[in-house]
Amino acid sequence: MKHTISVLLQNKPGVLSRVTGLFSGRGFNIESLCVAETLEPEVSCMTLVTIGDNFIIEQITKQLHKLIDVIKVTDISNKEYVEREMVLIRVKAEASTRAEVLRVIDIFRGKVVDVSPKSYAVEVTGSASKIQAIIDILRPIGIKEIVRTGTIAMARANKG
Amino acid sequence: MKKITGSQAIVKCLQEEGIKTIFGFPGGAVLDLYDQLYDAEIQHVLVRHEQGAVHAADAYARVTGKVGVALLTSGPGATNGVTGIATAYMDSIPVVILTGQVPTPLIGNDAFQEVDIVGITRPCTKHNYLVKSGIDLIPTIREAFHIARSGRPGPVLVDLPKDVVAGMIAYPEIKPIRMHNYQPTYEPHIGQVAKACKAILSASRPVLYAGGGVILSDSHSELTELATRLNIPVTMTLMGLGAFPGSHALSMGMLGMHGTYAANMAVANCDLLIAVGSRFDDRVTGRLDAFARNAQIIHIDIDPTSISKNVKVDIPIVADCKYALTAINNWFNSEKSLSPGETATKNQAWIDTINTWKVEHPLCYMDDGDIIKPQYVVEKLDELTGGDAIITTEVGQNQMWAAQFYKFNSPRRFVTSGGLGTMGFGLPAAIGAKMAFPDKHVIDIAGDGSIQMNIQELATARQYNCPVKVAILNNGYLGMVRQWQELFYNKRYSSTVMDTVPDFVALARAYGAVGLRAEKKSEVEPVIKEALATKNVVIMDFKVAREEGVYPMVPAGKATTEMLLV
Ligand SMILES: Cc1ncc(C[n+]2csc(CCOP(=O)(O)OP(=O)(O)O)c2C)c(N)n1
Ligand SMILES: [Mg+2]
Q1: Is B505 helix (H, G, I), strand (E, B) or coil?
Q2: Which ligand 1 atom sits nearest the alpha carbon of residue B478?
Q3: Average pLDDT of span B380-406
């Protein structure tokens, strides 16, 4: 099963390689990994998407927690949460397909962020499945290049 | 505030940490520190290879319970230490390794003798640091000691660029270390303790399975109290030997691949397995689905990642073994309904069964006239030292025979590379142990192959009048590997024949040590007696039966009940 794990860690050199080294050394999967500063510049937040059964996910969270530089580990897929990913897609946009491309972008609430005579660069934000959906739709038209950020996620606030 | 140099500060800091002896080897990047050590009160032991420095510091830690310290130069000095660091890491031994590094402006330039030792050792240290400025120097070293010795202990490396060590700093005052990101759990969950105690009471076939964690947390007396009060048989891992007296009636000795018949049968048939500071290593469990198949499992460990890593645990207790065992003992003490008479005979039927297993298949070997059996040498060492020497080992058959035939009655007497199985560990480890306890007999039970991996440390032992004894069980083979080839590769002894070895007696003399040899069984005892009476370093070369095997043996991947016996 896919799990989204949020990790707060010290913003120090080498911390990222401690995490990636842990995953490669113990044979855990990383689907995607995003990391940036939080409001406190000395703390970073990492969102990690990984796949494994409960046994493995338990090991992953414990092993992450064991790293000295890690402050907090939350498997947020156990909770209500929002996830977002952004993708930039350079898609073929010639006279015959331009309208079609624009319509698709519109449906996905995307934005055209760069234009050339033969292509558009498109920005789309959403859940991983939404990103996958627009990729699947644009692929037959002709995707020239694609860059994804990987997922970031946040647990929903308690209601009430 | 008055400023001092980084190297003065480091020495002061080491003294504050209570460090009296460190092990190391100099080089360009650590010259400032060595200059400072020249007239410092800390004793520096100059090894002959950096691997030896780390092993010696590691063994110093194993026998004293304090943090060991190794000092290495940059580049090759640091990389030579890596095997030692990995050895300490696998066995959770508190060691602080200080490495020199090129000056900060040169880092990343492929400068002379530069390696990214922090990158290299990241997966085999508990934590590591590169100190980038003087202001961080002392706080980092203090934190390194704190991390090394607390929680599940382990090696911590601090990489020290030359300019940082040479620079001037204000020495920071000592204050308690608070790390909000690192807070090991010492106290057990009281609810879990009660659950465990009730499970212990209702079990009729319980087994205590004690590992190195009992020794690291100094909880052997708490363990003994629990075992004897409730009449629970005890088995120990290689790392746990000495956690419970080996000659006690409740001891079943070691379990696992070369464990005793009784221990492996007991674990296979128990209804409750109480794992204390042990980690269900594959050499202990054999085939996992057959391990303690019908048992409920209690697992006490300070490291949450050890729990339910290999085997699903029913009652986990994340805590320091000492705290957890104390809580368990207290629970039983306050349980008024338990009469001591009742608990002392509890499990008696089970103990009787175990005793028949002990009698059916004790640890044994076939005598063979005047040929020296390696097991006999270990038995004699045990007898002639009153079971009270510190025994270090190399790796292979020698290590297993030491574990089987020397009866360790106290903790911190058996110093062996368990997790990594590092050949070459025993001699430098013996030096580290002897530096800590100069008045105790320290004996490296060695193989003819392993001893050659760090034989150069004989010079260190000589230089510091550190009269360690080396007992080579000389079988002319890389014996343990040969045994696997014998059993599983049709006796094709590919590259395990070691018939070209030095004349160890002459070699000992070349180092200014004493060399003794025994070729017949009758010579074993006199040789050991002479060695023990000698004030110098001694190598005993025992020419033992060449193709002797270590038994019982559970072939890798088999259930632990599928033992090959003598
Ligand atoms: C550094 C290292 N290299 C290789 C091995 C694999 N190995 C394990 S036991 C062994 C044989 C050791 O031979 P010896 O020291 O003569 O001991 P014996 O088994 O004969 O008692 C070897 C090669 C190891 N454990 N460590
Ligand atoms: Mg040998």
Answers
A1: helix
A2: 13
A3: 98
What's the mean pLDDT in B401-427? 98
pLDDT of residue B338: 74
Cβ–Cβ gap A14/B303 under 8 Å: no
In the predicted model, what is the mean pLDDT of residues B172-185? Answer: 94
- Token pair of B80, please? 């030579």
Residue of B nearest to A60 (CA): B305
Report pTM: 0.96
Q: ipTM of the predicted structure?
A: 0.91
Among B82, B377, B450, B477, the mutation site with the greatest number of ligand 1 atoms within 8 A of its Cβ is: B450
Residue A56 has pLDDT above 80, yes or no: yes
- Chain A residues inside the 8 Å CB shell of B180: 71
Residue keyed to tokens 């580290």: B432
Cα(B398) to ligand 1 centroid in Å equals 9
Nearest Cβ partner for A63 among B126, B130, B305? B305
Give the pLDDT band (50/70/90) at residue B463: very high
Mean pLDDT across B390-411? 98
- Confidence check: pLDDT of A160 > 70: no
Q: Would you state the structure tokens that stand for residue A74, as one six-digit string?
A: 């939350």
Per CATH, domain B374-543 is 3.40.50.970? yes
Q: Which fold has domain B190-360?
A: Rossmann fold (3.40.50)
Nearest residue to B302 via CA among B325, B332, B272, B284:
B325
* Domain limits, CATH 3.40.50.1220, in chain B: 190-360
Helix/strand/coil (H, E, C) string of chain A? CEEEEEEEEECCCCHHHHHHHHHHHCCCCCCEEEEEECCCCCEEEEEEEEECCHHHHHHHHHHHHHCCCEEEEEEHHHCCEEEEEEEEEEEECCCCCHHHHHHHHHHCCCEEEEEECCEEEEEEEECHHHHHHHHHHHHHHHEEEEEECCCEEEECCCCC
The per-residue pLDDT for range B335-350, each reduced to its tens digit, is 877 777 777 788 999 9
Nearest residue, CB atoms, B180 vs list A14, A18, A71: A71
In chain B, CATH 3.40.50.970 covers: 3-170, 374-543
Torsion of the alpha carbons at B537, B543, B546 and B551, rounded to the nearest 10: -60
What's the one-letter identity of residue A93?
Answer: A
